[in-house]
Amino acid sequence: MSKQSRQFQVPDAVANLYDFANTLDMRHFTHHGVQHRLDDELKSPDDLAAWMAQRRLVQTGAKITPAMLEAALSLRATLRDYLQHDPAVRRSRSATRALNTAIAAFPLRAELGGDAGGALRPVRDDALAGLSALAAQLYDGARDGSLDRLKMCAAEECRRVFFDRSKPATRRWCMSTLCGNRIKTRAYRERQRGAE
């Protein structure tokens, strides 16, 4: 769990998904005089290895290859595409098809025993086996509903993934005081210009 996922009280059950989706920062707006710049935490195999090591998803010294980085980036792109849809739309076959294809590269097997009575374990035995934990979080989140609360900010200049903690789970923006306010102010100004 990252500092940011703790700050925004993202449950442990989906924290790695939240962090992984947000390794690509698409924000491009100015806030309090600070210009956000597009950024990608996963620019190289070493970056991916470091990200996974911080979350204990990779064994120390495991080698991430450029092909493995491409597989991880493909998973991230598909996850972000999935999260931009409304939870009701996500249940459609067309919305899940691409995500199911992407997570097929990170297969899991069921193992019985342990304190929880059983667990999903990675089938892969290479450096990317840890990303199978993301596939397990997707599965668990879909079953318990927590995945429905992971959403992408509706502001085009933001596109951060956030965890919707609102009771009705109807939030559209990562922060209503930031993105929501910016969108509402823009809409108000456009209405005023139209009225003139």
Could you walk me through the main structural features you see in this protein, from its secondary elements to its overall organization?
By secondary structure, the protein is α+β, with helices and mostly antiparallel strands. It has one domain (3-195): Jann2411-like domain (Jann2411-like fold), CATH 1.10.3300.10. The protein has helices spanning 3-7, 12-21, 45-54, 66-83, 87-90, 93-103, 132-144, 176-195, and strands spanning 24-25, 30-31, 34-35, 39-40, 108-112, 118-122, 150-152, 161-163. It starts with a helix and ends with a helix. It contains eight helices and eight strands. The mean pLDDT is 87.
Concise overview:
The protein is of the alpha+beta class and 196 residues long. The chain contains 8 helices and 8 strands, in the order ααββββααααββαββα.
Quote the average pLDDT: 87
What name does CATH use for the topology?
Jann2411-like fold
> Going across the major beta sheet, what is the strand order?
1-4
Sketch the topology as an H/E string, one letter per element: HHEEEEHHHHEEHEEH
What is the β-strand count?
8
CATH architecture: Orthogonal Bundle
N-to-C terminal Cα separation, in Å?
50 Å
Integer-rounded radius of gyration:
18 Å
Poorly predicted ranges (pLDDT <50, ≥5 residues)?
none
Q: In percent, how helical is the residue content?
A: 40-55%
CATH superfamily: Jann2411-like domain
In CATH's first tier, which class applies?
A: Mainly Alpha
Instruction: Profile the largest sheet.
Output: 2 strands, antiparallel
Which descriptor suits the 3D outline? globular
Task: Tell me the fraction of residues in β-strands, as a range.
Answer: 5-15%
Find the structural class using helix and strand composition. alpha+beta
Number of domains: 1
How many helices? The count is 8
